[in-house]
Design a protein that fits this description.
Layout lengths: L1 E5 L5 H14 L6 H10 L2 H10 L1 E7 L2 E11 L3 E9 L8 H11 L1 H5 L2 E6 L4 H6 L11 E2 L4 E7 L1
Parallel strand pairs: 4-5
Antiparallel strand pairs: 1-2, 2-3, 3-4, 5-7, 6-7
């Protein structure tokens, strides 16, 4: 059974392990500089900080954590989705859609005029299918860090 719930203290280690594994196994086509930053970045401490700053959701299948995502406030009119990952074996089962429906329905995202995120190369098709667009042009990397930005506006 698939459930989505808010982050609870004690989830941080499992989330960190799942995210780092996904980065290594699924996002391996991302630029090495991105992975070198992201893999150590998603520590258990970071997961706790994200849950305290925003609203972190945990996706469970039969009681096992298989995904997560956080909605962060970004000023008064925007929100950012970060740390949105699925365990490799959960990709392609419709779980990403379930997770993103919860993230987009979150009060921080719902009240925002613009919600944005950065994407890996591997997730672009998913985001495009879900109605997200790259404000810099189709699949164009931009900014100082040469990232793929996606957004939804209301």
């Amino acid at each position: 059974m698939l459930t989505i719930r808010r982050f609870q203290k004690g989830d941080e280690e499992t989330l960190s392990v799942m995210i780092r594994r996904t980065l290594r196994e699924v996002n391996y086509t991302s630029p090495k500089s991105e992975l070198d930053y992201l893999i150590p970045h998603y520590s258990p401490e970071t997961m706790v900080e994200l849950s305290e700053t925003g609203h972190t959701y945990v996706l469970e299948e039969d009681g096992q954590i298989v995904g997560s995502g956080t909605v962060l406030p970004d000023g008064e009119t925007e929100a950012e989705i970060v740390a949105a990952f699925l365990a490799p074996e959960s990709i392609g089962k419709g779980y990403g859609r379930e997770l993103f429906e919860a993230l987009e329905a979150d009060e921080l995202a719902a009240k925002a005029q613009r919600v944005w995120l950065t994407s890996s190369d591997m997730a672009l098709g998913f985001y495009e299918h879900m109605g997200w667009v790259n404000p810099n042009g189709y699949r164009v990397r931009a900014g100082e860090d040469n990232l793929l930005y996606m957004e939804k506006r209301k």
